[in-house]
Amino acid sequence: MDSTAARKPRRSSKRAGAKKAAGEPELVQLLTPEGDRVEHPDYSIDLSPEELRGLYRDMVLTRRFDGEATTLQRQGELGLWASLLGQEAAQIGSGRATRDDDYVFPTYREHGVAWCRGVDPTNLLGMFRGVNHGGWDPNENNFHLYTIVIGSQALHATGYAMGVAKDGADSAVIAYFGDGASSQGDVAEAFTFAAVYNAPVVFFCQNNQWAISEPTERQTRVPLYQRAQGYGFPGVRVDGNDVLAVLAVTKAALERARSGEGPMLIEAFTYRMGAHTTSDDPTKYRRDEERELWEAKDPILRLRAHLEREGHADEAFFTALEEEADALAKRVRDAVRTMPDPDDMAIFDNIYADGHALVDEERAQFAAYQASFAEESN
What we know:
The protein is α/β, with parallel strands linked by helices. The protein has twelve helices and nine strands. It folds into two domains: 49-338, Thiamin diphosphate (ThDP)-binding fold, Pyr/PP domains (Rossmann fold, 3-Layer(aba) Sandwich), CATH 3.40.50.970; 346-376. Helix 1 runs antiparallel to helix 10, helix 1 (49-74) runs parallel beside helix 11 (315-337) and helix 6 (152-167) runs parallel beside helix 7. Mean pLDDT is 92; it is low at 1-16. Residues 57-338 form the Dehydrogenase E1 component domain.
């Protein structure tokens, strides 16, 4: 996607963007839920048919991987899983907007962004299986390890961005968090430092409407993107189910950060189709009618409708992609079921550089405890 350029278009008399409901702020939209291409006065993007097919492929494979992981958890192969179902456009659009030298700080749900950064999907599953603390080298893909603590990664991203600015590097940082995390003090502090130091960081909030069982309207009295105004930097709300709009807005925000114009907040207005995690039951706090309303805005279906209408993809493309998705699912299943268990004694390594008497004593005690099970079985 490096050849894609987000730009400021010329003003047009054509109705631009998404129509807003009474009392609702307008959001940036370039592709309607029906798959119609529209223009926006501030954001535009030109993509080739090949690039459009690439975005569609990204979303389909990410959804298939995510669904397979959910199934593996239900079968007892994973301890927990946080699904991204419904948020594919927000993640693929923003992920494809980044450059290789940008640095990404995710939460624990950015499986689509990880895909865009070149992280092998199977590496995401080790932590959820309990065999490692993160199965990839963050510096290999400039993609930080998943962060379970809500909101803390916004501070990490801001500090890293401040360092980038001091080094004079031509790169940007992007931090992901959800609507629930926007209520955390860590995020507020990150906004303050980013604004004061004019850090090259983009704050990307995936507003999926629910912080577990708490709806957005019970967390804020203004739209989330408007919070940026109080810190002195711009915010924008984008249709988070429109991969084209997300790509255009995020690319422009990252370019703005790289050029020394400071931070920006993007609120991707989307919806979590599934549970918060596999330990959650969303039927206890939200209605089926609400989900059905958002299903009509499905990010994958709307891009497929556009591809078919414009003649950019044929049935052979969709069939081949389905076969590729099946192969990915099989690879994921096989990888999870053959993951080796960690060394039981490894928890005592790398605590002190030169060793420690108390740790040595604890290691010996734990080794004796483990050996007792073998003795009992004999």
